[in-house]
Amino acid sequence: MYSKIIxxxxxxxxxxxxxxxxxxxxxxxxEWILERTGIEQRHIADDKESTSSMATKAAEDALKNSNxxxxxxxxxxxxxxxxxxxxxxxxxIVQNNLNINAPAFDIQAACTxxxxxxxxxxxxxxxxxxxxxxVIGAEKYSNLLDWSDRSTCVLFGDGAGAAILSANKDKGIIxxxxxxxxxxxxxxSVEKNHIKMKGNEVFKVAVNTLSNLVxxxxxxxxxxxxxxxxxxxxxANLRIIKATAKKLSMPLERxxxxxxxxxxxxxASIPLALNEAVRDGRIKEDQVILxxxxxxxxxxxxxxxxx
Length: 307
Ligand code: UT7
Description:
By secondary structure, the chain is α/β, with parallel strands linked by helices. 33% of the residues lie in helices and 26% in strands. The chain contains 10 helices and 13 strands. The protein has a 5-stranded mixed sheet, sandwiched between helices. Strands 8-13-12-11 form a 4-stranded mixed sheet, with helices on both faces. Helix 3 crosses helix 4 and helix 7 runs parallel beside helix 8. The longest helix has 22 residues. The two termini are 15 Å apart.
C-alpha cells in the first residue's frame, strides 16, 4: 500500500517583516540578506497566534481541499521545534481544535521535521495501522530569535503547512530516507531560548550532505536525475537550494522556491512550498517529486513520491 498526498494546506500570518524593516532593528542591509540568502521578507505571527493555532488553520485548509471529513482522519502528526508548551503536544491541541477522534503526537527533528513526519506516516499506512493521516509542519520561530543578533534574526519566519496522506494501492510515497548525526550539535542549537548558529559551517555541511542525499535517493530507487519532475527543498537559503538543483541538473523553474517570501520556517517550509506549487497547478498528478531537508541535529532526509 502506498501513502498518497491527497491534499495540502497552508497558513501564513498576515504581518510581513521586510528586509528594510530589519534594517531599522539591526546592523544589516536588504542587499546583504538578499545576496546571501535570497530572502526578501518573512511572515511573523502576532501575540495571539501560536504554533497550534497556525497548525490548525493549515489543517483546516487541507481538509477543505480534500473530500474527507475530520472524522476520517485516524492519526495526527505535527512536526515542530516550537511547540506552544512542552506538553500537551501541539498535535493534541490541534486534535482538540479540530474535534478529531484520533491519536496525535509531535515529532521534533528541527528543519527536517516534516520529512521525518512523512516517513513515520508512510510506515503507519504501509503497515495498515492508518488510512488517512494529517501531517503538519508548524513553527513560530519569532519566539526563538534574539532580535538583536543580525546573524540569525534575518533568516527565519513563522507559518504552517499541512498534507493529508491516504492509503492508495497505485501510487504515493516511493521512498523515504531519514538520517541523523549528533556530533555537530554545537553548530546549530537553541541556548537560553535563542537560536545559536555557526552559519558558514552549517552551510558547508548542508551543501555536501544534501548532495550525497540526492545520490543516495536516486541510487536506492534506480532512478536517473531526469526522472524527477519537481524538487521541493527545505527553504533555508537560496544558495543551498541552487547547489542541490545543480547536482540534479535541474533548472530553477523545476524547483519550488518560497524562501524569498517566507524565509526559513523550519518544519513548515516544505509543506508550505508543496502547498503553493500544488495549489497554483505547477505540480500535477503522476509527476515525480523529490522533497529534501537538512537541519539541526544534524538531521536530514528525503521523500520521493509520485503525486
Ligand atoms: O535550516 C537549517 C539549516 N540552516 C542553514 O542551512 C543555514 C546555513 N547557513 C547560511 O545560510 C549562511 O551561512 C548564512 C546566510 C547564515 C550566512 O551567510 P555566509 O555567506 O555564510 O556569511 P558569514 O556567516 O560567513 O558572514 C559573512 C559576514 C560576516 O562579517 P565578517 O566577519 O566577514 O566581517 C558577518 O558578521 O557577514 C556578516 N553578517 C552580516 N552582515 C550584514 C552576518 N549576518 C549579517 C547580516 N547583515 N544580517
